[in-house]
Write a structure and sequence with these properties.
By secondary structure, this protein is an all-alpha fold. It has two domains: 240 residues, no CATH class; 183 residues, Hypothetical protein af1432, CATH 1.10.3210.10. The chain is 67% helix and 2% strand. It contains 20 helices and two strands. Helix 3 crosses helix 5. It is elongated and about 90 Å long.
């Protein structure tokens, strides 16, 4: 599955579940500190604005509605809340803005808690995520605490930049304490949500300017929010269909792995080990997370075509004849053929499976591909496949030692194997081989969870 779809699915599941103890503690402390800071501002800042209470209540209600217009980006989401944040920050009594936004966030979450799509414990998370509103309040308190004036537009721009900065700081702190998402993915997610806010802010500012003449101008937010809701709903439904399709792919992979295990227990155990080695090598090489699932599936299914090879050839306790070896070489083509019939993601995996016995110097099979003509995942699987085969007992020979297998890979680096992959696999083995998961854990991997291989103590 593409990383974005996988993260969306994980985020939806996470929001509906109880929080882990550490997450519960971190978010509770953050929410408490935020409420304390908001209370201090409410008590200490002078109030230089007045706003009709009905308009204020209307803004909070509108915020609660608009905040549910969400555009999912991987593990996070962007919302249309900026359409209402801007009017609240620029029109409401400044000392009370953080508390008002906190109340609006809680109100926005209550319907989802009643529907079961959010767990009630996550109310504290909604408060913990309100830190973004404190920096712009502080900027305005110093530079433009009074009524909205078009002459102060540059100050409002500065306040928006402060809002983005505050959101980034909290995002980084939260990630450091809880999530430990790769920094690149974290920043990309923040940029995605920040881009949404940057798009909505000028429009919200124009509506707010008009509202200084007539509060009815704020009503323009609702039809715009309805239109955005339609777009967000379409996006949500596309994600749902994509997630369902990929669940079907994963189910197919698990079914094929069962067939492999039933047909040949060694091939099944070997394939599971190759999955672990391939992911450890991918970690070493910094392979993009979005490319991982194709690699995982290819590692698990690289020998699926052996189902079509006669048992007497697969388990022959002696060297294969030329004719038998030619028949054996057909297993990559048969594997691609099986996966091509499924199509989609597994069709692409089939292309990787076909090339899992191509050699760096072009003497491999079935197509004689050379060097970087060979798909990178195929090169990883080929090297890991060879290492595990060499270090496993077979009916016709005993297992090599780790040192001897690594020496064999090094001897054929640049001819049979990609030198970069050989070097990465050598580091993996030296640091401690990946622990091979049992069948149920492998199923969990194939069910879509990102692999975080545990390393055994090197010895």
């Amino acid at each position: 599955m593409l990383l974005a779809e996988r993260l969306v699915g994980e985020a939806r599941t996470r929001r509906a579940n109880r929080m882990e103890p550490r997450e519960r503690t971190v978010l509770a402390v953050s929410a408490a500190v935020f409420l304390a800071a908001a209370t201090v501002l409410a008590l200490m800042l002078p109030s230089e604005r007045e706003l009709n209470p009905l308009v204020l209540i209307g803004l909070i209600a509108t915020y609660a509605i608009v905040e549910r217009v969400r555009f999912e980006f991987g593990g996070s989401y962007g919302t249309a809340e900026q359409l209402v944040v801007v009017p609240i920050v620029l029109l409401a009594p400044l000392p009370y803005v953080p508390i008002l936004i906190a109340l609006a966030n809680l109100a926005a979450t209550l319907p989802e808690i009643s529907q079961g799509s959010w767990h009630r414990e996550r109310l504290t998370g909604r408060l913990a995520d309100c830190w973004f509103c404190l920096p712009p309040v502080l900027v305005l308190a110093v530079l433009a605490p009074g009524e909205l004036r078009i002459e102060d537009t540059w100050i409002y721009v500065l306040a928006f930049v402060a809002q983005l900065f505050g959101d980034l700081v909290w995002t980084l702190i939260r990630d450091q304490l809880l999530d430990r998402v790769p920094r690149r993915e974290l920043l990309l997610g923040w940029l995605s949500t920040g881009r949404v806010d940057a798009i909505f802010t000028p429009l919200a500012y124009m509506i707010t300017l008009a509202a200084t003449e007539s509060a009815f101008a704020l009503m323009a937010i609702l039809p715009l929010a309805w239109l955005l809701h339609s777009f967000a709903r379409d996006r949500e439904e596309r994600y749902a269909k994509t997630l369902e399709l990929h669940r079907a792919y994963r189910g197919t992979v698990m079914l094929l792995s069962d067939v492999i295990e039933f047909d040949d227990d060694y091939t099944a155990q070997h394939s599971r080990s190759v999955v672990e080695f391939a992911n450890a090598v991918a970690n070493e090489l910094g392979v993009d997370p979005s490319d991982r699932q194709e690699l995982e599936f290819a590692a698990m299914l690289h020998d699926v075509g052996k189902i079509t090879i006669p048992k007497e050839i697969l388990n022959k306790p002696a060297e294969l004849t030329t004719q038998e070896f030619e028949l054996m070489k057909q297993h990559t083509i048969e594997g691609q053929f099986m996966l091509d019939r499924i199509g989609g993601l597994l069709g692409r995996v089939g292309e990787i499976v076909r090339s899992c016995h191509e050699r760096w110097d072009g003497t491999g099979y079935p197509d004689g591909l050379r060097g970087e003509q060979i798909p990178f995942p195929s090169r990883i699987v080929f090297c890991c496949d060879a290492y595990h085969a060499m270090t496993s007992d077979r009916v016709y020979r005993s297992a090599m030692s780790k040192e001897a297998a690594l020496a064999e890979l090094a001897a054929h680096s640049g001819t049979q194997f990609d030198p970069v992959v050989v070097a990465a696999l050598a580091k993996v083995v030296q640091h401690g081989e990946p622990v091979v998961n049992v069948a149920d854990e492998v199923r969990a991997v194939l069910a879509g969870a990102p692999i975080r291989p545990e390393l055994s103590a090197s010895g």
